[in-house]
Design goal:
The chain is an all-beta fold and 121 residues long. The chain contains no helices and 10 strands. The model has no long low-confidence stretch (mean pLDDT 78).
Length: 121
């Protein structure tokens, strides 16, 4: 049997979309409990708990990336929380109706994290 050497076994990762003969030598067609890191294939060591425990049962979650930090927003059926550095902060709105009246003229809405400004045109 001929041995064909190849380097950088983790550069492509797992590709199940193409036929085997169409893949580059460094691509994988299947894998289980494997992750690719630094152009190498290594055994996956498991998962890590992030919201242990969450303040509410989450029905929706998404990461939010800022220039300095990464935090998670997650929502239940009635409340919304932000999670960062082990702290869960309730960011659910307190009032259920708006505090401003829409003027008869047109409005421009500009957003800048984390606030929204509404001004007449």
């Amino acid at each position: 049997m001929v041995k064909i050497p190849f380097d950088d076994v983790g550069t492509v990762g797992i590709n199940k979309d193409l036929d085997d003969h169409a893949l580059p030598l460094s691509a994988w067609t299947a894998g289980r409990n494997i992750r690719f890191n630094d152009n190498k294939a290594e055994k996956f060591l498991g998962h890590e708990l992030v919201f242990n425990p969450p303040a509410i049962p989450p029905y929706w979650a998404m990461p939010v990336l800022t220039a300095d930090n990464v935090f998670w927003i997650y929502a239940g059926l009635t409340k919304v929380y932000a999670f960062q550095g082990g702290t869960h902060s309730n960011i659910t709105r307190i009032k259920t109706s708006p505090e401003f009246e829409i003027p008869p003229s047109e409005l421009t809405i500009t957003t800048t994290a984390p606030s929204v400004a509404v001004a007449p045109v």
